[in-house]
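Lecture 7 notes: from sequence to structure.
We start with the chain below.
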Amino acid sequence: QRCLDAMNGFDSDSLSEAQMANQEAQHKNVGLVIETRPDCINHTEIARLRELGVTKVQMGAQSLDDHILALNRRGHKVEDTHKAVALLRAAGFKIVLHWMPNLLGATLESDRVDFTHLWDDPGLRPDELKIYPCQLLDTSELYEIWKRGEYTPYTTDELIDLIADLKLIIPRYCRVNRVIRDIPSHHIVAGNKRTSLRQDVQRELQQRGQQCGCIRCREVRDRAVDPQELQINDLTYPAGGGDEHFLSFVTMEDYLAGYLRLFLPSSSTPDTGLEDLDGAALVRDIHIYGQSMEVGSKAEGAAQHVGLGGRLMAYAEDLAREQGYRHMAVIAAVGTRGYYRKLDYKLGETYMVKQLL
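Predicted structure tokens for the same chain:
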């Protein structure tokens, strides 16, 4: 509520008042991200998160090996991560997982195998990923284990080689947000101390003549875009008991100008208990890249504000309609509800909803 008050410019009496005001405010909330643990996600929690206006959830999966999780006292199991991801996807949230190589008990080879589970397992397949190599601090219990010779941090070269290998198998529907925690090097006792690991990995890939295909590595950024020359792609993959459609506009050079994540649930998808989602297809994310611009403005060659979002929404609605879904639900931030109203969506309980059939 206080965050919305700051954007709205006045003190509200309730969260609902702040949310209503932000729909017309000059400074709109276009997304709300929280970070939690896999074992904290349940039906009560997802309903509460939607009431707060949350649109994206980050979770520390850390490893997909119960033995490694237990050794490192993570307090959750792989099953918890599976259940949380499935429920969050069914409720339309964007999903960010944190994965940690070099945990106690892991090896370079086991980390390579562990990483493949993120993509091979239809119960996972996150939208975004943060790679956080374990870093040794003298305030941690791991420090005492290291002093006994029972833990060995990877060297910088080993990490660069490992992450460069892993980036090559990341699907085109996933964005790698980070590859290192920004911990000051003087706090790290042993192992990698470089915070520029992403640049180091990119340089390694260039030297190999290889390229990562993740979203971040393909974003159009400030390159000129001709909307008429963009190609629309539909990358479909099973996840969460349903089908994900990663709809994207790409340039002739394969740069990404925008995308939409459409989830088509099935009888195998967990029941969220949320009325807005009964019989609905879900738009979980829509994003147009390019230079930032003021609302309503245009610029020659810019991907923003040339109708790409509307075209993606129309394409998604046609797909959902063809598959027999009665209506479409969008997990919209409070400040973006006005955009969807222009596309004939109405506010349900906490989602923007449109009848399709």
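Points to note: Residues 36 and 59 are 5 Å apart (CA to CA). The radius of gyration is 21 Å.
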